[in-house]
Amino acid sequence: MVSFEWYRSFMAVYRVGTVSGAAQVLNLTQPAVSQHLAALEKELKISLFQRTPRRMIPTPGGMRLYNQIADSIEQLESVVSKISPASMSQIVRLGAPQEFFMERILGRLPKSDDNYYTVTFGLAQTLIKQLVSGNLDLVISTLQIQKSEIVYQPLFEEKFWLVGPKDVNIPNIPDASNEGLITLEKWLTTQSIISYSEELPIIRRFWRTVFGRRIAVDPKLIIPDLRGIRQAVELGLGISVLPDYLCENSVEENRFTLILNPKRPVMNVIWLAFRKSDIHMQRTQFFLELLRRT
User: Fold this and answer.
1) Which of 7, 93, 145, 237 has a 20 to 30 Å separation from 135 between CA atoms?
2) Where in the chain is the domain with CATH 3.40.190.10?
3) Comparing C-alpha atoms, which of 45, 42, 53 is closest to residue 19?
4) What is the pLDDT of residue 40?
C-alpha cells in the first residue's frame, strides 16, 4: 500500500531537484526521503528519476505521476495545515528589505493572532539563499532570483521619483522634450547627490531610463538606508532618487520637493517568495492576502 508520505517526498524531490533539498523542505533526514522514493518506485514498478551528480531528473513516468497526483496532494496538505493544532500557533520567519518592512508591513501585522514572527533584514540575494536553505519561510524580495524550488508572487509596484530639498531652485524647464531633459540633467550634475551606495544602484538605473545615459558624478553622501536618505534630503543635504512609498508624505507635507516623476515611470516589482512545497501552507496564503493589501 502506497504511503501518503512517499508521495510527499516524491513531490518535494520533483520540485526541489535534489534529495537533500527535499529533506530540508520536509524536515526529514536525507535517508528517509531516499527510502520513500525507493519504496514508491518498487510499489509502482517504475523509475521516477534519473540520478545525476547534481540533480534528480524526472523520467517520463515521474512526470506522468506528478501530473496525476499534484493537485490532490496539495489539497490534502492544505487541509492538514489548516486543521493541525501545530498550525494554530507557529513561528513565521520572514525576510525583507528593512525600509519596505518598516514602512509598509509592520503596521499591517495582525495584533491578535496566535502566530509568532521573526524578521530578518538583508539584501535579496542573501535572503533568498536563506529561504532555499530552509532558514526562512517567506521573503519579500526586490528581485526575482531564479531558483527551481522558489515561487514568486508580485505584491507591489514601486515607482522612483527624483527628489530634492524643499527650497531647491529648479531651473525653468518648459516641457519634457529632449532639450528640456538635457537642461535638467546639466543642472542635476551640479547638485550634491545622496546615494545608497558608492555604485549608485537606484540612481544609475533612473538616469539611464530617463536621460538615456550613465550618470557621471560621484555621490556627495552615502547612506545605506533609504529612510536615512529621505531624512538627508529633507535636511537639505542634496538630491536623490527614492521609491514613491517613501516620498509621498514628504512631498504632500512640503518637507522636500518632487523634482521629477517621469512620464515614463522607472518601476520595480516587489515580490513575495516562498518554496513551492509551501504554496498551500496557511502562513503563505495569509501573507499573500495581507501583503496584497499594501
Assistant:
1) 7
2) 89-157+269-291, 158-264
3) 53
4) 93
